[in-house]
Amino acid sequence: MPISTQIDKIDAYDKVLGKAKYASDFYMEGMLVGALLRSTRPHAHIKRIDVSKAYSLEGVVRIIQAKDIPGENSFGIIRKDQPLLCDKKVRFIGDPILIVLAVTEKVAKEALRLIEVEYEDIEPILTPSDSERSPILIHESGNLLTHKKVIKGNVEKGFSESDIIVENTYITTWLDHAYIETESGFGYMDGNGRIVIYSSTQNVHYKRKEISRILALPEEKIRVVQATTGGGFGGKLDMTIEGYVALSVYLTGKPILIRYSREESFLVSTKRHPLYIHYTTGAKKNGTLCAVKVSIIGDTGPYASYGETVCLRAAIHATGPYEVENVYVDSKMFYTNNPISGAMRGFGVPQIAFAHETQMDILAESLNLDPLYIRMKNGLKRGSKTATSQILEESVGYLETLERIKPFWLERKKGKDRGFGLGSMFYGMGNTGITNPSWAELKLSSDGKVVLYTGVCDIGQGSDTVLAQIVCETLGIDVSKIEIVRADTDYTKDAGSTSASRQTYISGKAAYEAALKLRSFLEREGFYSGKKLKDIFEKYKDMGMPVFDGFFDPPTTKLDPETSSGKPYATYAFATHMTEVAVDSSTGYVKVLKVHAAHDVGKAINIQNVKGQIYGGIAMGIGFALMEEFVPGKTKSFNTYYIPTSLDMPEVDVFIVESEEPTGPFGAKGVGEPALIPSAASIANAIYDATGVRIFELPCDMEKLKLLLERKRERG
Amino acid sequence: MRRFEHVEVENLDELLELLSEFKEEARINAGGTDLLSLFKDRYLFNYPKVLINVKPVKELDYLELVNGALRIGSLTKLSTLARNPVIIDRFPILRETVLTIASPQIRNMATVGGNLCQDIRCWYYRYPSSLGGPLLCARKKGKSCLAVKGDNRYHALIGEKCYAVCPSDLATALSSLKAKLVIVKKGAERKIDVWDLYTPQGLGIGPDEVIKEVEIPLEWAKEQKFIKYTLRKPIDFAIVSVASCFKFEGGRISDCAISLGGVSFRPERLKEAEDLLRDAKIDEGLVEEIKRRVLSNVRPLSKNGYKITIARELIGRVLLSLM
Fold this sequence. Notes:
- The complex is a heterodimer of chains A (about 725) and B (about 325).
- Chain A is of the alpha+beta class and about 725 residues long.
- Chain A has three domains: about 25-125 and about 180-270, Aldehyde oxidase/xanthine dehydrogenase, a/b hammerhead (Aldehyde Oxidoreductase, domain 3, Alpha-Beta Complex), CATH 3.90.1170; about 275-430 and about 560-715, 2-Layer Sandwich (Aldehyde Oxidoreductase, domain 4), CATH 3.30.365; about 440-550, Aldehyde Oxidoreductase, domain 4 (2-Layer Sandwich), CATH 3.30.365.10.
- In chain A, strand 21 and strand 22 form a beta hairpin.
- In chain A, helix 6 packs across helix 7.
- The longest helix of chain A has 23 residues, at about 505-525.
- Chain A is globular.
- The N and C termini of chain A lie far apart (about 60 Å).
- The radius of gyration of chain B is 20 Å and the shape is globular.
- In chain B, strands 4-5-10-6-7 form a five-stranded antiparallel sheet. Chain B has a four-stranded antiparallel sheet with strand order 11-12-13-14, with helices on both faces.
- The interface of A and B includes residues 588 and 634 of A.
């Protein structure tokens, strides 16, 4: 049985043997290398650009500016507010101004230093509150990017019925994805004058659309292929190098390579949104939640990127996996001249989970209830009504995740400076309240194999393997019998982006649907009574081999513009982590010792992949909770941005809950982002358990925790 | 990287000759582990014209016991220190310290002299010019230390004009062993204490000088302890570290040296605490007294005061472990 059994990742051997080809491994005769000149000012008008000295440097072939762009000089996943190359105004330190193409990377970078740019500074806006009040506009449309509300019931009535009200403010900061491969892309013009781009990306079809706008070329003239990609976590959803590579190919006709250095990647890649969360919870003495009122203010940086998604998703998930009768969430995103914030594993939900989980623990303590009990009491179950008034009908495994943790929770033994914390989460699979379909296609090949054509970008998370398993399970064939053509706009249909934990659920279902069609064809052709695939192919090769396609778009509804009521997601994943920490109370050093992680994934198609996601999520959670912090203007690389290493990792026990989702392939949902979301919250709660100090701001690094511990001691 | 002349030397005399000729315009490339980021990030204004590769200089790669001292050649690799039997036997503190430095790959390249002479880690100072322009600080054409008014959580408690910390853990450990450095230039040789290698504005040796060897006195340091506090477990610089060595006679401390890392522009010897400990018997009262006095006359910057309590706590732990 290909699913639910241990299968090696399809791409693993090529990667460890160095055979996998990443974008910067490509080379072609006559290739030019591009480098970008970037703004040194956070907010300024560009007065003058002088490139004459750079042109006189030997090896410089072409310098490309905004005026050379044939189509639109703008891009953006939701709002097209980001210029490809700035010509009038720069809005953050790192905003791109021009591209230098040269015979080598070294010459290109040398040339950047010979270019003079004269700026006229504008006062930079560095906080959302300044952005809200300032008369200075970052974009002509105003400094407020978006404002969303989630309303259910009557929150004031809820508070008046509450026995206790808990009110706190939570703050999080910028984080970097820190993927192992920096942004890079290679492109060339083929014999037919079409532009071909290989890039490190999470979505090929979206990139093709953007390139088509920028070059004013029909999409058919552009081919985008995903090169092997070393991680994404949301940072490769926006256009990174693709636009620059395509423009350079278009203007020169030469093969082009552009790749970011680690420092450049840190400077310009999108960051996790810093959120200021003001959270008020009202509850009855018995622990029943009556009302939740949340105000979220986010710093989206100079361009929209995924700011609108984060704004809405954080609001929708603000209650956590609990049923609350009265909800009022007000969520705003402001432009600033800080780094661009965008998509990063969880779209704002890890931040909001830190808030709602701390609130739950404070409530439990104030009411003298067990933290697990209060979660159990309010937890979402079948028939529950969420904050967007969606009735959950199927696959609600939240309480089961608590049940799986319960024996360990009840048996926990608190030592000196040791503590245990719980963190729970729910997370909607796929895009929010919009259609987000996926296609898959299957064909037979002449060597007797099944070929899966999928637009899904495998960025290391393992979708290739999972999709192959789904197809093979459906067809009853071995995984060695399948080949995958992946993420190539010429050969695969749009599967949407690798984000929002959606690919196993949505593209997995599309692959499953295609496999069902192929299966009935193979039944008719006698495959299951002994005929070989090769012979079936032979029979059809002259009259044309049929293609079997599958399609899935999860059933969602558009949300009400005022209250966000509706069905934003077809299904949700659930999880609970129980984390044990040891705190050195005199120095503030926290060691995460052990995590019990229970995840409702619907169905684990590949158990090893699910576990891998959870281990990785916890590593990222430790970073979020204890050490990661991007400080604009100071953090430049891994020597100032600390991510946990294997020595910082705890022992992890994974418990897989399979509350099957009827619309998913074999009942599967997803786990990519859920793996991370409850982690930091459970660490923060464990620190409280160990020290009596509440964490309201992340990261809670040594010096911060130490200060809090000292203050507590001073108060006695 | 900027263009430079790359010269390879085969012995110490050739090196000293070149240094006396080029002075500030020359840089030594030993392991290259720190030098690489200097070139890559371009955070300085003046780059060397000549890079002198000293890897072929075998005469500075040695560990030997002579005249009551252990002599370590400055081109000895850090990884060698970690596995040398004499070190393991007599100076376990050096092994312990070295194993907290960087990663195995870096320790295989990095040298003793290079580690002692590595550049400061201040994030203002090191911010690369290529990203948004250089930050002008007290060491880089600027008037004042940007950390004083800025984010100084990892900066020094003790400094002067510049508040970068001495980044070398090895220096902290060697200070507690009362090690000396033999400094040579063309036609001259002198000996200095390890902590005198550092000044608040940079290294306290001339551009034509080089560390030839480290000389560690034998026989006195019977108890050796090193504790390093970092944000992340491996591959990290010390927030605070404590290296200490003790000699006991009849249950009393007859000699000791305690050195703090991460708090000052140099490894900070705690002479006052050492005086209190000498000829004393450690008890809880004395430990509390010493903890109270450590760094008591220091005025921290806005965000680095926590280092004082961490330092006190670590010293307390060392002393209590000796009881």
